[in-house]
Amino acid sequence: MKNILVIYTGGTIGMVKDKITGALHPFDMKKIYEALPVLKELDCNIDTLQIDPIIDSSDMNSEVWIRLAKLIKEKYESYDGFVVLHGTDTMSYTASALSFLLENLSKPVVITGSQLPLGMIRTDGRENIISAIEIAANDSVAIPEVCIFFENKLFRGNRTTKFNAEHFEAFYSGNYPSLAKVGINIGYKKHLLREPSTLPLRIYDKMCEQVIIVKVHPALKREHLEAFLAVDNLKGVILETYGSGNAPTADWFIGAIKKAIDKGIIVLNVTQCKAGSVVMGHYEASRELLNIGVVSGGDITTEAALTKLMFVLANYDDKETIRKMLSSDLRGEITEKSIC
Ligand code: ASP
What we know:
- The protein is α/β, with parallel strands linked by helices and 340 residues long.
- The protein is built from 9 helices and 18 strands.
- The termini are far apart.
- Aspartic acid (ASP) binds at residues 10-12, 56-58, 87-89, 113, 115.
């Protein structure tokens, strides 16, 4: 029998109704079998843990990501797979961050949550937890990845984005197909999965927080951009541009970005679109960005770009290495041919 560790971090999924008052409150993970007795019938041993304190995922940060990575490392030899219960709001950031912090994975780390609390009759949490555990415990396909399971689909975590605040189908992976679909059977798409590593799991315990996301928009003014880029000790900027990587061509805009790059700040270009890729130089409106040294994020999501930048800046010093890593596929987060 497979051994699965379920780690509860907080979020809607863990909310149950108080029998007396009817109010929703976070449940005690030790009582997961009370909340979900059907788990006893799954063909695996399940142990549970919860982080302390449990948090709404709006409070997620790199300190918790590092704690989760350390926890998985500490328990790695004792379990065949890990399921992380997490709020949906920052789930894609956490999935992306863990994909970078956990190197040489050979076991599944499946993150799930729900749009409706477990304590509600129509909850999507019940199916999500059961299927996530079944996937983590499956013995037909190796899933050496940090994934998100949500509403019948298994995704590569660092390719996802939360795109719907209301529907059960809340996650989207615009540039990489789902890794499995759950219907009557679980249909794995083996050819899309990463290869299990034969090397020992390595974790990283540093992430740089001196990073910002600047979204270009038609009302962006010189003083706004200059104020963002003047932040003390800034190390990296995700520039969320239009379409295939286009940004204003005005001198003040290019000048401000160039000044930041000349100061040693890394600027990574990602598209605001939910699918497709940055192709710098494709239009006049991105050629100058290429010339001044902006790095292309290719088809990476903003969530993966931010956490990758945090990871790379904290763990590598040499600027050329950092730029090269940002343009390389580290954990399946970009399609390398999309980089130009
Ligand atoms: N605010 C909640 C969270 O992300 C929402 C959810 O779980 O869906 O923690």
